[in-house]
TrEMBL record, chain B:
The protein, known as: Iron ABC transporter permease
Family matches, as Pfam families: FecCD (PF01032)
Membrane topology: Multi-pass membrane protein
InterPro entries: ABC_BtuC-like (IPR037294), ABC_transptr_permease_BtuC (IPR000522)
Superkingdom of origin: Bacteria
Predominant location category: membrane
Amino acid sequence: MQTPNSAALSATNIHAAVHARPILQGVNAQFAQGRWTSIVGPNGAGKSSLLKVLGGLWPAAQLQGEVALLGKDLQRWPRKQRAQALAWLGQGEVVTQELTVMDVAMLGRLPHQPWFAAPSREDHAVVEQCLRAAHAWDWRHRPVAELSGGERQRVLLARAMAVQAPVLLMDEPLANLDPPHQTDWVDSMRALTAQGITVVSVLHEISVALLADHMLVLQAGRVLHQGRCDDPATHAALEGVFDHRIQVRAIDGVWMALPRTATVVQAPERLR
Amino acid sequence: MAAFPTSAPASAAQREAAPGLRRSAWLALVLLVLSALLLLVGASVGSTGWESVLRMRDDPTSWQIVVDIRLPRSLGAWLAGGLLGLAGAVAQGLFRNPLADPYLLGSASGASLGSALGLVLLGSSVTSLNLLYRLGMTGMAFVGAACAVALTVVLARNVQNTLRLLLAGVIVGVVLGAMRDLLELRHPDILQAMQAFTLGTSAFVGWEGCALMAGVLLVCVLATWCCARLLDGLTLGEATAASLGLPLAPLRYGLVAVLALATGTSVAQTGLIAFVGLAAPHLVRSLVQVGHGRSTVLAAAMGGVLLLAADILARWLVAPQELPVGVLTAALGGTYLLWRMHRSTRSAGGL
């Protein structure tokens, strides 16, 4: 087992391309064990691509550099063991309309099952726990076709958590979630890291991203900054990468990203 | 949300059946009963009507009509429909497209080219009941279907990119279709026999054909049942399926093989029968919502019921003559899909 704060996941000198067009250019990043790191940056900075590289989902022919999972080269992990060690929640995962909530969450247990076996008691117990955590247990028998976007996202979150991997990668996990469920998600990330699980998430909601332990700021395929979320240097990098169109402020002890619009309308003025 | 469980809470919920499972059990029962009833009707409908059944104890000709002609062709129609329904469900799962059809990978045009070649090489006596001749024709159609699918896979370079696979299937279909047309132009004497093949008919299915189709259907059902949860996993998308450690390449090759085997066998026995493979999984999905394991088996049973019902209609509508069953399935299946489209555009949903 890793010692606390050693890197559960690390990327060294990553160059990735799509049809010879460079997407990532010499990315180095360390993701400490038992910590939640959020990856932020403008559109097209390479956030999702970096997450794919970290998840071993980038075509090897278009990739240079090394990713190490729990101290071992990602490419050298046997497929099934890697699936147990590294859970992934993609952006806009689609699901056939016929599966029920329970079926979808149970798919997260596939890495733990022999290919042709039925789910075990333990699988059922884990799925129940994850669906309860996502507040989805009560409608576990509904087909996903009937769910709203936010409800579906919660089921997919439960599916990713059901893998019970020590490293969890999430691309835009908050898509379609309403504020209370966003808060629930943050709480569950904290609970996971308290158990020693490493979480890496790509987030567009900068204020939620600031609730993480660490932040990786990407710009045009390069790492602009990596540091603690409460570090003023991180805030400066964050404001810089978004052309100072946002400002990071502490409100009631919580770091928030506020828009810096050209015309600020004062609330009382609107009443006049 | 809380974190992962540290201890496993025993849950009674895992044994309680979901509503979808109960409904699928009911549907299976209904389809079984329907199949049995239709088989009985199938044994009684034909150019000589009920009389053959009533007299079959005393009259050897009636016995022969029922046991050697009507029963095997009815069972054959059910089995061919079952193979097409299963292939349709597999195709729709593999391509993650509800409009995927079992003939997509070029198997249909491959089988017709194989048949045309067979007719040219073996002679075009369509009514010959010579066993060796029938076996040869079936073999040619099957080899044609298998070669066409193999060619599609080679052209698509591998099975990983389903879009490339689809495009390659379309191209192979067009090219092989053109080759068949050329062959027909050079040998106009095979045209009539080819027509029977392209329109689809269960008239030439004997007990050997039934045994073959039953065996293949069993193998294909078992194979898809075993990878059903992997097919479910595939619906989460490429990246997530890979992250779950699914053996994507072997899975796809296996499914393409099942697709080729099921369509090749059915086309070789009954010719090209349209829409059953497309409509059967659709009908199942509109009735029950279950994972790929159950829905594939149900689609097979549904395909069997559909084709057997169509076959009986084809024999009965203009008796003592009969319609080619493929024409009937195309007309009925097309109407059904139109109706579904109409309904789904009204409710603003997809197919």
